[in-house]
Write a structure and sequence with these properties.
It contains nine helices and 37 strands. Helix content is about 20%, strand content about 30%. The chain is an alpha/beta fold and about 475 residues long.
């Protein structure tokens, strides 16, 4: 039988001291709520309902962008977790499966635990955890496979405080019995709120079954209440991602310094050297090398590519056997065909380098196509912007571009041509042509000493004026 998931995401999160809703604070580039919803979907939920409240328009905008299929319930006043679930009642009435209730600030929750909760028989199923230090947590008091009650730290007896099984605040319910129990809880407490855990007393009073299910990973149920705890959760998540990559056949050097976002994909036998940042929807193929201090986002790197250290990439495509770096900057729209290379202090933007094309150092290539086996000399610049519009440069196959060549776009260079070093190319160059575009050199014999004396005199005169 299927199940639905209700995610509680209406709270303000005052301990974050932020104008941003709590659940939109990010770890590894994604809001906490993204991880919770993704886990619910991966677990196989029939439907996910997110309860929004504080700054709901920001949370709803995020959901429309990332999870348009998710349903939204509104909690106009934040009157507690029990009240929040009641706000989602219209999505639960008449449903025959289980309903799992998650918190939007538990980004590490695993889909396996959600699935186990939903599949475990019982009117109410409580996800529990064995805590290394249970201080501060509500203790789960059970009789074998039945939960008797949950006692908070401040109310626990010395014997109860020795219990290391704690309540995670994550539950599954038979929906009709849950909605019935929510009508019977009250807000007779210091906060004047309706608490979801209070339904346990109602269930016990009515003779409904309350069953514990223990998570195997205590870190997966940690809540995040401030920015310090956010950083702790991010470390757990980062370690989890790195470990999964290592177990899938990826070598990771200096793993503690590696930052890899959750949608990044890496193929087997690839070697990653930390520190490194892999962001967004980056895909890295098999048998690649990613050097230290590189920062790569939303780029595709095919099999057998070498990315040397200190490379920065956004929206680039590096095909099999190509290479970049060290110290290369590849901006969106860059494509390197097989065997193409961009080297040290080369910047590209909307640059297409065909098979075997090379720009080894000190070059800017923007809005251009570079043909097969063409060599771009150091200091080359495609002058693509005239202050109003971007213009295109096309360089053919087997072209030798001399150092410090400037291509004033729009301009086209034919196959098998050469541009002399220091040339400013403003007109098209036909095939198999030597293009020289620079002022004629003039030598004045014996004039060097005269110029030096004039410069010395100017320096002395300037010094005398400063002291006068």
């Amino acid at each position: 039988m299927g199940f639905k998931v209700v995610v509680l995401a209406a709270g303000k999160g005052t301990r974050f001291k932020s104008d941003l809703p709590k659940v939109l604070h990010k770890l590894l580039g994604k809001p906490m709520l993204w991880y919770v919803v993704r886990s619910a979907k991966e677990a196989g939920a029939d439907e996910v309902v997110v309860v929004v409240g504080h700054k709901r328009e920001l949370v709803e905008e995020f959901l429309r962008r990332e999870f348009p299929e998710v349903k939204v319930a509104v909690q106009e006043e934040q009157l507690g977790t029990g009240h929040a679930v009641k706000c989602a009642a219209s999505f639960l009435k008449g449903y025959s499966g289980k309903v799992v209730v998650l918190n939007g600030d538990t980004p590490l929750v695993r889909s396996e635990d959600i699935k186990r909760l939903a599949e475990t028989p019982g009117d109410m199923v409580v996800l529990t955890a064995k805590a290394p230090d249970p201080t501060g947590y509500g203790r789960v008091v059970r009789d074998g496979g039945e939960v008797l009650y949950i006692v908070e730290e401040k109310d626990a007896t010395p014997e109860e405080k020795r219990i290391d099984e704690v309540n995670t605040g994550i539950y599954a319910f038979e929906p009709e019995k849950l909605l019935e129990a929510l009508e019977e809880i009250d807000n007779d407490n210091a906060q004047g709120e309706y608490y979801l855990p209070d339904v346990l007393k109602v269930f016990k009073r009515k003779g409904y079954s309350v069953v514990p299910v223990e998570t195997l990973d205590f870190s997966s149920v940690m809540g995040v209440n401030n920015r310090y705890e956010l950083s702790v959760a991010e470390k757990f998540l980062r370690d989890r991602i790195v470990k999964e990559l290592q177990l899938s056949g990826v070598t990771v050097h200096n793993p503690g310094s590696v930052y890899i976002e959750p949608e990044v994909k890496v193929g087997k036998d690839t070697e990653i050297c930390g520190p490194v940042y892999l962001r967004g929807k980056t895909e890295i193929g098999e048998s690649c090398f990613i050097g230290a201090f590189s920062d790569i986002e939303d780029s595709k790197i095919e099999d057998g590519v070498t990315v040397e250290s200190h490379c920065w990439m956004r929206g680039a495509l590096l095909k099999s056997g190509s290479s970049a770096g060290p110290f290369a900057k590849l901006r969106p729209g860059t494509v390197l065909e097989e065997g193409a290379r961009v080297g040290t202090f080369v910047e590209t933007k909307k640059a297409y380098l065909e098979r075997g094309a090379k720009a080894n150092h000190l070059t800017y290539l923007g809005d251009c196509r570079i043909g097969e086996n063409t060599n771009i000399g150091a200091g080359t610049i495609t002058c693509n912007y005239d202050g109003f519009n971007k213009w295109f440069t096309e360089v053919g196959k087997n072209v030798f571009v001399g150092s410090n060549t400037l291509f004033v776009a729009p301009v086209k260079v034919g196959d098998n041509s050469i541009t002399a070093a220091g040339s400013v190319i403003t007109k098209d160059v036909p095939e198999n042509t030597l293009a020289i575009a620079r002022a004629k050199q003039v030598n004045y014999a014996g004039k060097a000493e005269t110029v030096k004396e004039k410069l010395k005199k100017r320096k002395r005169d300037g010094h005398s004026q400063e002291n006068s």
